[in-house]
From TrEMBL, chain B:
It is a multi-pass membrane protein. This is Sugar ABC transporter permease. Its main location: membrane. It comes from Cohnella fermenti. It is found in: Cell membrane; Membrane. Belongs to the binding-protein-dependent transport system permease family. Coiled coil: none annotated. Residues 75-290 form the ABC transmembrane type-1 domain. GO terms for cellular component: plasma membrane. It comes from the Bacteria.
Amino acid sequence: MKRLSISDRLFVWIVYAILTISTLAVALPFLYVVMVSFSTKAEVLSRGFFLLPKTWSLDAYQYLFREKNFLLSFRNSLWITLVGTVVNIALTSMMAYGLSKPWIVGRRALNILVLFTMLFNGGIIPTYLVVNTFGLLNSYWAIWLTAAIAPFNLIVMRGFFQSFPPELEEASRIDGCSEFYLFRKIVLPLSTPAIATFTLFYLVQNWNTYFNALIYLNDSTKWPLQVFLRQMLIEAADSSMTLEIEGFEFGPPVKMATVVATALPLLLIYPFFQKHFNQGMMLGSVKG
Amino acid sequence: MPSSDIRGRLRRGLPLYALILPGALYFLLFRYLPMGGIAIAFQNYDPFEGFLHSPWVGLEHFRRLFGDSDFWLLLRNTLFLSMLNLFVFFPAPILLALLLNEARIRLFRRAVQTVTYLPHFLSWVVVVGISVLLFSTQDGAINEWLVSHGKERIGLLTDPAYFRPLYVLLNVWKESGWSAIIFLAALASVDPTLYEAAVMDGANRWKSMLHVSLPALRGVIVVLFILRLGQTMETGFEQVLLMQNTMNLDVSDVFDTYVYRNGILIGEYSYTTAVGLFKSAIGLVLIVAANTWAKRKGEEGVY
């Protein structure tokens, strides 16, 4: 390779510098929160801002994992995410498979009905009143059912099923397979990578659900972690009144530890995501 | 097509209809039924009377809406935040992709991508939460640092002047990396001989980024920009709601947060449904217009 000219060397230098700074700007706030979560309240009060604690401590986490409300909301979040994702994947894959058959009568109309919901919706109040009418307020079903299918995911998955060769269907029909059998035993196993990707997207959506939980769940013992965290951090900072949540004597490290605990499950599944989008999955990237 | 064929296809499709049914019911009950519920925008809906017995009032709520000074405030704030997204947030991922494309060390690229994609998966509660820990007036990191250097505390979260910059900053922080993916994909498909030709013509790296890479992104940029225009009414509801407080309400209140506060919390169902309908109707018109425009540019729209 030819040696770079001076102007090119300068250019490359600037490129790496800007990228390094941007990456640090993304990483540092999170790193700061993680670091302080391992420090003590005394150090935070005396030193103010720092990135590396002088005394490392697990106090914040020890406190947090004894805090009843935290444990409860963590368990609620796990349950909401688990059942929610099963509902999401079941309904989305079944409907996507049905709509992937070009010969199905009424397919066009159904596709248009699905598409239209991406462009227009009833809005917050009418949806809330429907949920109320069905008697779902204060039940997790309000969360699971109102977000059962993301139309975008449905459309992408339908496209994926359509890419299956029609011979597969014909061959299995000649062998006397039922449509259910074909779907469950042949199509689904062949779709593992796609199903895995959508499972991850739905997992994130369910774990991060905040607003629906806020409006549909009145009973604070049913709140997921996101609502708990919001109560703990934002409302405390907003109002001047002292927060009723116990453990405030532990100060900032406990808040930081709660942020870390809320983000942790996502950080744990993040490597799986990477594997998939490195394989060229760009799902969702055009959405925003 | 002969009707017997349709009947045959219907019979053959029975198991498939069974698979479609739960999903179709979902769309019917939780997507289309609420659309029907929009009718209460033309009523004085009373939860105790129910939908059927509440009195109809025609366009009264809309007349009130357009005469309401709140309405102009909501519209102004929505447009302001959208413009910030369009002109400050939108270029960020393009820039990131262009720079990443120039970084040839694979490990470095991977590291930058891993870190910058990550915040996309964090909830807005976590992201706004982190911003509170950094920016809050009493024990936020920035203010602690300022105080330890003998400076005054700044009300970064409470002073309305900081709301909009902070709003777009959080957006850039959370979504730039992930949004760069689509531009990176477009750059990956550029014919390498174009770069070689540019070098032959005496272009340095900067020139070839400007005259080969950037033009290669032109199509994607134009279409995504148009489609973003179609999203003008959407300002990221959860983000705004979470960043909102009583001090910054004048600049942070948008249609959705107004509907939430006055509808869900105060119970003014009919009026807030009208407010919501106004927002979604304009949104629908904008999306359809943007999509048609994008398609005329010869590109794929969102539908």
